[in-house]
Amino acid sequence: MKKNDILILLMLIFSIFPMVASAQQNETSAGYVYVDSVVFRPTAGVDSSLVGKNIFQVLSAEGGRVAISQTPEVEGSMKKHIVSNGGRTLPGYRVRIFFDNRQSARVASEEAVMKFQNIYHGVSVYRTYVNPYFKVTVGDFRTRSEAMALLTRIKREFPSAFVVKEGINYPIVDKDNAYVVDTVKVCRPVSVVQH
User: Fold this and answer.
1) Which of 25, 41, 22 is nearest to 33 (CA)?
2) Which CATH number does 90-172 carry?
3) Which of 1, 58, 96, 179 is close enough to 5 for a disulfide, judged by CB 3.0 to 4.6 Å?
4) pLDDT tens, position by position, 159-169
5) What is the pLDDT of residues 9-47, one digit of tens each?
């Protein structure tokens, strides 16, 4: 099976969960409970052809259709704005995989970072110390749903992991994953719910 065929199959399977939940909503008091579930929906592909380019130069070079005249002061001001906002964060979510204040917490947090980086390449890892705690958080997600998707992937290796709201770096657009991750409330029997 191709990668796209597997993704389509997974999307079909996960799209059934909301229907099952709506059919069982009336039975929540009789042994059922609502739990968060992750749903993958296909989305339009992202055009990242302008990333890292000066939009004014691109528009001017488009066969002469658009001519932009601006003073050097405006162009300089725009460059200063881009440079000064390079380190800004935005509100979002990360997954905390380590949180401890024991004497061995420094070494343990370094080990958690190394373990995560060896298993999950390409996911950002942040190790911080806020007196008296060492913390290791991973990922930069704009929505809780995206963070929950990572949480479900790493739960086996990091069973105490949980989602936290933090200031995040701007996520890198990944054109190879053209799907949206969403969270829905699903009604499941109490005996099936795992904590």
Assistant:
1) 25
2) 3.30.70.1070
3) 1
4) 999 999 999 88
5) 555 555 554 544 444 444 455 777 877 777 665 554 445
Cβ of 148: how many Cβ atoms within 10 Å? 20
pTM: 0.53
- Provide the residue ranges of all domains of the chain, joining segments of one domain with +: 1-46+187-195, 49-88, 90-172
Asked whether residue 118 carries a pLDDT value surpassing 60, the answer given is yes
Specify the 3-state DSSP secondary structure of 187: strand
Q: Which secondary-structure segment (H or E) carries 154?
A: helix 144-154
Q: Are 35 and 188 in contact (CB under 8 A)?
A: yes
- Taking the C-alpha atoms of residue 171 and residue 6, their distance in angstroms, rounded to an integer, is 25
- Give CA–CA dist 137/149, Å, rounded: 15
pLDDT in tens, 136-147: 999 988 889 999
Contacts of residue 109, Cβ cutoff 8 Å, sequence gap at least 6? 98, 100, 127, 134, 135, 136
